Amino acid sequence: MILLCDISDYIASLGIAKKEHCYHGIMPDKEEESIGTYPQKRGRPPDMVIGGLENKSYETRELSFLVHWNHSPTDTEKAAFNLYHALRDTANAKVNGHTIAFVKMSHEEPIAVGADEKGVLEYVIECMFYIRAEQIEKEERKG
């Protein structure tokens, strides 16, 4: 299973935000020019695999990213689109022993969600990560 911290490490490796401004689960200090990684709140049924779990070729994670940037609408939109395009273009990326095969975007573009209580502008990006099965098999054997 790929964890939020693994995805956050991948986001940090993209160079859009500083590593220390890439968070997962919570964004404690709400520093400007930060990106948060969160599980999506809506659930979906588990994938059913014909022939059993040993035939599963991938796992998925539905995630949301909060691009919490600055007071400039232009800078914030650029950062959100940079992340959106980097995620959309992901192919066979290696992160902490996992292979992210690809990322399926949930919307045509980042979603503007306004500003926080300090006026820092924010965008949300929703997507589904597809992770190769070789990682699943290794973890199940450890389990």
Structural description of this entry:
This protein is an alpha+beta fold. 25% of the residues lie in helices and 35% in strands. The protein has helices at residues 4-13, 73-88, 133-142; strands spanning 22-24, 34-39, 58-68, 91-95, 98-105, 111-115, 121-132. Strands 1, 2, 3, 4, 5, 6 and 7 form a 7-stranded mixed sheet that branches. It is elongated, with a radius of gyration of 16 Å. Residues 135-139 have low confidence and may be disordered.
Give a short summary of the structure:
It is built from three helices and seven strands. The chain has 143 residues and is of the alpha+beta class. The longest helix has 16 residues, at 73-88.
Topology:
Elements: H1 4-13, E1 22-24, E2 34-39, E3 58-68, H2 73-88, E4 91-95, E5 98-105, E6 111-115, E7 121-132, H3 133-142
